[in-house]
Write a structure and sequence with these properties.
Elements (H helix, E strand, L loop, with lengths): L7 H22 L1 H8 L3 H29 L1 H15 L9 H33 L4 H22 L5 H25 L25 H35 L4 H20 L1 H8 L1 H21 L3 H15 L2 H43 L1 H29 L10
Helix pairs in contact: 1-4, 1-5, 1-6, 1-7, 3-4, 3-5, 3-13, 4-5, 4-7, 5-13, 6-9, 8-9, 8-13, 8-14, 9-12, 10-11, 11-12, 11-14, 13-14
């Protein structure tokens, strides 16, 4: 028995994704205030922010194992509860060391939530027998947009402590409400049948067999290439538009907003496109669209043309990461999600850094063209995944819906 296309479990899980994006955005908006509060230099702040990434990366593999043992839905609720609590902590730090410790815990909640939510989403996709993974990530995108807008409006009237406290309270309230619904909804069995492949079998969640691990690694590399572009664009778009294209700060902000809305909109249509085109074809077209858009955005001489390029990048990248994580979960269960998510998160970390070094050496426009290279790789890697899946029969539901 499965949920209806928009049954209680799907609504509740989408709410978790939205709250995850909302809480992360609420923190990001307040970074300048927290930096002043702890009196950190740029390099010291960078080290503190690295603690967030370290907390996430260290937690992800452990959460994959917890999902196997206790189920992904209870771990999702626990991770979001931790994230809702941890978002309060940076506002009460008064040194770089204490900020780093707070962000280590925040990163643990954020990384844990991402693995657990995606694992729960993979199971729900299997229940529904529809490629609805992009819709969950659309919830994350819209949650981030709402978090950015609301936190920006509250930046004047409320102190950092009060603003983050309200965000944490909202996160906790949604965690309780959506958690009750999610835990009471029928769940897919942890172990699913595998297509016969010469007498070999695999339980959902194992990445031990070489062919399964190879599939997950390829999908993780797809996520890494996609996240490389997302991280680079998040940190460098406005600077490129102001310094290289000579746009005003308002136009530059609008340019990044257009990219973010395009990505959210692309994810809303991701399920329909997955059914119509097939997942592999959608990932191929998405990656190539993002690559073309990035070349336009990086090399355009005028702001309107550059912004159009960023819109294409947002539309193109929109469904690559969700589908890569979904297929990694189909192949390797929660541990597959954890491995692919860790690689993807690594791409988001190295993207801005690589762009920075290349910009110093060759200029920011040329540095940004590496995003086009990464997007092309993200478009082509799923073709290898499809061939390996057909040869080995790996994965629980390694179908292409096309």
């Amino acid at each position: 028995m499965t949920d209806s296309p928009w049954g209680p479990a799907r609504v509740a899980l989408t709410a978790f994704f939205a709250v995850d994006g909302f809480l992360f955005a609420a923190w990001v908006v307040r970074i300048p205030d927290v930096r002043s509060q702890v009196n950190a230099s740029h390099s010291a702040l960078g080290l503190a922010l690295l603690c967030l990434s370290v907390g996430a990366v260290l937690t992800m593999p452990m959460v994959g194992r917890l999902c196997l043992r206790y189920g992904s839905r209870p771990v999702t609720v626990a991770s979001l509860a931790l994230l809702s609590l941890a978002v309060l902590l940076p506002a009460h730090t008064h040194s770089v060391a204490s900020l780093g410790a707070a962000l280590l815990l925040f990163g643990a909640g954020y990384g844990g939530a991402n693995v657990a939510m995606n694992s729960a989403a993979v199971d729900l996709v299997a229940q529904l027998r529809r490629p609805v993974m992009p819709s969950f990530h659309a919830g994350y995108s819209f949650g981030g947009l709402v978090g950015t807008g609301v936190s920006g409006l509250l930046a004047g009237p409320l102190s950092t402590a009060w603003a983050l406290a309200l965000s944490g309270f909202l996160g906790a309230a949604v965690t309780v409400g959506a958690g009750v619904v999610l835990l009471r909804s029928p769940a897919a069995p942890l172990v699913a049948p595998t297509r016969p492949t010469g007498g070999t079998e695999r339980t959902a969640g194992g990445t031990g067999r070489p062919h399964v691990r190879a599939l997950v690694l390829l999908l993780g590399l797809t996520a890494l290439c996609t996240a490389y572009g997302e991280g680079a664009i998040a940190d460098w778009t406005t600077l490129h538009l102001t310094d290289d294209v000579h746009a005003s700060p308002a136009v530059a902000a609008a340019g990044y907003g257009a990219y973010a809305f395009a990505m959210a909109g692309g994810r809303v249509s991701g399920t329909w496109l997955s059914i119509r085109l097939g997942q592999t074809r959608l990932m191929l077209l998405g990656g190539l669209t993002a690559a073309a858009g990035m070349l336009v955005a990086a090399l355009a001489p005028a702001a309107p043309l550059a912004i159009c390029g960023f819109v294409l990048v947002g539309l193109g990248l929109a469904n690559l990461f969700p589908l890569a994580i979904a297929r990694a979960g189909e192949a390797g269960g929660p541990q597959g999600v954890a491995l692919a998510s860790s690689l993807g998160y690594g791409g988001m970390l190295i993207g801005p850094v690589v762009i920075g070094f290349l910009a110093d050496a060759a200029g920011l426009p040329l540095a940004l063209t590496t995003v086009a290279v990464a997007a092309t790789a993200a478009a082509l890697l799923p073709l290898s995944v499809g061939r390996r899946a057909r040869v080995t029969g790996g994965g629980r539901h390694m179908t292409d819906h096309g």
